[in-house]
Amino acid sequence: MPDLNLLVTLDVLLSEGSVAGAARRLRLSPSAMSRALARLRDVTGDPLLVRAGRGLVPTPRALELRAQVGPIVESAQAILRPAEALDLGRLSRRFVLRSSEGFAETFGPKLLSVIADQAPGVTLRFLTKPDKESSPLREGAVDLETGVIDEATAPELRAVPLFRDRWIGVVRAGHPLSAGPVTAESFAEAGHVQVQRRGLHSSEIDDAAGRAGLERRISAEVSGFATALALVRETDLVATVPERHTIGLRNGLHAFDLPFETAPFTVSMLWHPRMDGDAAHRWLRRQVRGICATEWEARPLPRRRQSHHACQRSSAQPGTS
């Protein structure tokens, strides 16, 4: 394999037109520079510099190379020098954020406000997350993702926690279950919307209800929380959804504690490790973390006594993907 350091030597030799001048510029001895010129002649198959009187003149091949090698060396030096400080005011870039339903409605307005204030040239695209597939992050189709980490999460992905969440029940305003405390019996007697997402079967709610001796009567099955809440808004059905993740979708609806124990779960931010050193990507990650923390720091999750079974399941991180 050719020694790519020879490109720098060739660039200096051709610009100086002198072995002695190139040696001074590269801080080499004249003999070392002469050896480097000999290697270049051997690699290129051309004398490159030939004597004319007391000096050296470039060959036609050398003139051709001089027009090519300069930009190559300049580009290589730009690649290898330390990254410049991020100028948010001049940053022009589009980021893709993939998340479960409700994230954009809950956190999107504040995130977009921060972006518009700090980096007006940045565009943020929100994508819904139908499954746990990690290939969009691997392939660069997605820059950031939010979700619950489990055994389906690709092991190489980076992740930081954003907030804790829990399951709650939701009904329309004026629903019989909105009149007072929801009992196990009244919950079981109602019709329910079950959320089933591609690649997932949201069974943790039915598992928890089963441990309490309850069984939900499923009247409808949907693929997302937004659809479930839209049906609840116009019917007497009950939806069981994550509390914090769906607050932007639940305006005007009545929420209540489930009459049985479920384990809380952590929603995290995920990205591919190749983006670790990208300054603009780091800036965006800081904004997402800060907004999620600010949104919920004054509203901690209500504390509920967990049963022995719920404590056993808490490490499994059930919840949204």
Description:
This protein is α/β, with parallel strands linked by helices and 321 residues long. It folds into two domains: 5-80, Arc Repressor Mutant, subunit A, CATH 1.10.10; 89-321, 3-Layer(aba) Sandwich (D-Maltodextrin-Binding Protein, domain 2), CATH 3.40.190.290. Helices cover 39% and strands 21% of the residues. Strand 8, helix 8 and strand 9 form a beta-alpha-beta unit. Helix 1 (5-16) crosses helix 2, helix 1 crosses helix 4 (60-80) and helix 5 packs across helix 10. The longest helix has 21 residues, at 60-80. The radius of gyration is 31 Å and the shape is rod-shaped.
Strand order of the largest sheet: 4-3-5-12-6
What is the rounded Rg?
31 Å
What's the CATH first level of the largest domain?
Answer: Alpha Beta
Per CATH, which architecture of the largest domain? Answer: 3-Layer(aba) Sandwich
What is the chain-wise order of helices and strands?
A: HHHEEHEHEHEEEHEHEHEEEHH
**How would you classify the helix and strand content by structural class?**
alpha/beta
Indicate the overall shape: rod-shaped
Supply the number of structural domains: 2
Q: Percent of residues in beta strands?
A: 15-25%
> Low-confidence parts, pLDDT < 50 over ≥5 residues?
297-321
Overall average pLDDT: 83
The largest β sheet comes out as: 5 strands, mixed
- Give the tally of β-strands: 12
CATH topology of the largest domain: D-Maltodextrin-Binding Protein, domain 2
Helical amount: 25-40%
